[in-house]
Amino acid sequence: MAKVHPNIRVPDQPCITSIASQQQEPPVVLTVWRKSLLFNCHGFTVFDANGNLAFRVDCYASSTRRAEVVLMDVAGKPLLTIRRKRLSLADSWVIYDGDGATTPLLSVRRHVGLRASKALAHVTPLSSSLPLPDAYVVEGSYGRRSCAVRDARGEAVAEVRRKESVGDDVFRLVAEPRLGAPLAMGIVIAIDEMFRGGGGGSSARSLLRRTCSD
């Protein structure tokens, strides 16, 4: 990780839909640190390729069954609200734009099945403003720090990759422009909330299970 402390300048954050529509740009590579920069607070601190602060998540609640997590920009402005769906047969979360007051963007539902499967969760777009296919599947192993969000053709639109020699609290998140870095991070947060209890075998162990519970 090039830097721990962010630059003072607050970068402009493009809207979610414009990020998702920029399909000709290279992937965004982020470094995710399982720690909040705020004292006595748990969460994520996310850096861009230059070591500048890109996103943050600050969790004050220590509950293992949180109802809501907010992804913020450098200045603390809500970019996405990840909210648990009530009365769902499977563990399901909905990702909303901004402070979560109106626009649902994606649904992330935990995979449930009797047969062994590489699938951990299913992601479904909920907004026509997102130029995305009908569905994604999250596959891989959190225990190995290796998982991917794949489209119907099996192509990865986001990947969690192990970052060597820095311990388990730091990893890479690679996001393709058609999904966008904020939505990719939102999916990671939802997956973490589903699996941080450690249930479901080795493939279901949460890579980030200590993020908001250490």
From TrEMBL:
PANTHER family: PTHR31087, TRANSLATION INITIATION FACTOR 2B FAMILY PROTEIN, PUTATIVE, EXPRESSED-RELATED. This is Protein LURP-one-related 8. Belongs to the LOR family. It comes from the Eukaryota. It comes from Oryza meyeriana var. granulata.
